[in-house]
Amino acid sequence: MGEEYTGVDEDVQLKAVYSIWLAFRNITCGTAAINKDQAVALFDTGIDIIHQLKSVEGQFTSLILEHVFCTLDNIVFAYNYITKEHFQDKGILSKCLDAFKKDDTWECRSENVFVSVTSFLKRCLAEELWDHSSDFEMLLPILVIGLKKFPLNDRIQNISITLLVGACRMINDKKIIERSNAMEPLAVFLASGNNINEAKKIKIRSFIHKISAP
Questions:
Q1: What is the pTM of this model?
Q2: How many angstroms separate the CA atoms of 117 and 149, rounded?
């Protein structure tokens, strides 16, 4: 996959790439040992695939993205090979979010893709691979769109709220968070009462209070 997809063989290529990344996902979540060079090479290849698929629609694209993000998550979790310097120098966060930035791609990105990318980014945050204020600013619009598009998905709620709380701690200018409209979907959750336990309500109220406080 050296270029973005074009031409009549696109479906055949996508199916082949799907099979390959399903295999990588299974390998990296198992007990198979891979060395540092292999892990880093596979990680960087996954990031390249995400970039190449950023404007490609369709069922297989969503399936590929899901497997790629899960593979990257497995690599970060199981192997201590991806450093913060590598993550930052390669612009990993920006490249991951490229697959979701176009408005029309949201209609063809599945719920599972959003779960897999937010899970991966949360894992990277836990491993301190990204933690800059500018990183959180970049992530905010995607979290808001995901919360609006998949309001009943408990995993998306939990991960997005955790990342939003992190953004609240890191971003000094509260107007940046206000302009992202992050409070809108969270306020809707509180008002609806659907799928919201007390712990989550407390976290949401705390987030809204910090942003709205003078």
A1: 0.85
A2: 15
List the structure tokens of 133. 């204020």
Q: What is the pLDDT of residues 152-189, one digit of tens each?
A: 888 888 898 888 888 878 888 878 888 888 888 888 77
Write the DSSP string, 113-153.
Answer: HHHHHHHHHHHHHHTTS---HHHHHHHHHHHHHHHHHSTT-
- B/e letters for 35-52, b = 16+ CB within 10 Å, e = fewer, are eeeebbebbebbbebbbb
Distance between CA atoms of 17 and 1, rounded to whole angstroms? 9
Percent of the chain at pLDDT above 70? 88
Rounded-to-integer distance, Cα 56 and Cα 50, Å: 10
- Whole-angstrom distance between the N-terminal and C-terminal Cα of the chain? 51
Distances (CA, A) of 57 to 2, 35, 60, 102: 18, 34, 8, 11
